[in-house]
Amino acid sequence: MSQYLSEPLPRHRTVAVDVGGVTVGGDAPVVVQSMTNTDTADVDSTVAQVAALHRAGSEIVRITVDRDESAAAVPKIRERLERLGLSVPLVGDFHYIGHKLLADHPACAEALAKYRINPGNVGFREKRDRQFTDIVEMAIRHDKPVRIGVNWGSLDQELLTRLMDENHAKGAPLTAREVTREAIVQSALLSANLAEDVGLPRSRIILSAKVSQVQDLIAVYTELARRSDHALHLGLTEAGMGSKGIVASSAAMGILLQQGIGDTIRVSLTPEPGGDRTREVLVAQELLQTMGFRQFLPVVAACPGCGRTTSTVFQELARAIEDDLRERMPVWREKYPGVEELKVAVMGCIVNGPGESKHADIGISLPGTGESPAAPVFIEGRKAATLRGPDIAAEFRDMLAEYIER
Ligand code: SF4
User: Fold this and answer.
1) Best exposed site among 80, 205, 226, 375 by fewest CB in 10 Å?
2) What are the pLDDT digits (tens) for 241-295?
3) Is any atom of ligand 1 closer than 6 Å to the C-beta of 311?
4) What is the phi/psi pair of residue 370, to 5°?
5) Phi first, then psi: what are they for 92, rounded to 5°?
6) Using one digit for the tens of pLDDT, what is the confidence trace for 149-179?
7) Residue 405 among known ligand-binding residues
8) β-pairing, 362-365 with 231-234?
9) In angstroms, how far apart are the furthest CA atoms of the chain?
């Protein structure tokens, strides 16, 4: 037996769900998904953002369906995407009146690949079960899966109150936080049971239980995985802006994925004003790629730079290569299967440059301080050229493209 214990645990077994041609759960790779922030009734903006998210790598895109105008726009959005050649599955995000919108807009119900239901706001008391059942019946009629998406911020208050009272009656063995976690897990599982009782098979149900704290997310999903085999959608809600959101999402989901938990992920980042929505897709891809679960893009290994670095050329080159690869990957992936396995090295000096470059498929070692102004390029471990002069970066990018095309 290996003395190293760093391998991920075997994947938690879940029932596979087909979401408009994309498999979530079972043996399928962990799926990257995202959500628009446009007004869905604004067809042009929504089509543009769905297309941008999908081209960036989002395999499923969720859109808000909050009123008649947005429900009426959904089939138009679907049609426009098809005309662009984009078959990305669209998920409708419903709250409060999903049962009504789906009933009043059958074309919307048909155009969507999945319905997201929040059991915390589908109604109260007897209305809750009836309206929840209405959505499930709609899913059965249209042959669609649902995601039962519990959210910490809109948790079923009746269930929470009942569990709090029960805990109190037993002498409060659990903290309020523990009871809340239990309410989240129960809300998801009870709703899934109800959906199955209505006739929706488990192969049409995905569960999520989003919270905003890393330790709560790990606890809740670990428990969900222990108690069920439903496909699981991971995501930390209200993760925050910038590096805080990225670190929190990566820490929480990284730990769960390492335990084999999670069939699809969304990294929810609060965008900077005017910021690029596709960033959350890139972060999700990078999380899966750096953990070794999936390979989306060639790896560009670049040294961090130090006092031996003579200029910023190598950082700029590394960035330009990453940008080139990301932009050209949709075409290259189709033309050159396996291109995402490529390893490129961009190094700042002779100390580690040639060694790292030889380990890559193609690598360049730029000259550091006191070194001769020459940049050896290695292809598959052998020195293939030595670049000099002001156009080193452009020449290396051409060599990389030629190498891929060859
Ligand atoms: Fe510094 Fe050279 Fe190492 Fe890059 S390869 S970090 S420039 S010593």
Assistant:
1) 226
2) 788 999 999 999 999 999 999 999 999 988 777 778 899 999 999 999 999 999 9
3) no
4) 75, 0
5) -90, 125
6) 999 888 989 999 999 999 999 999 999 999 9
7) no
8) unpaired
9) 79
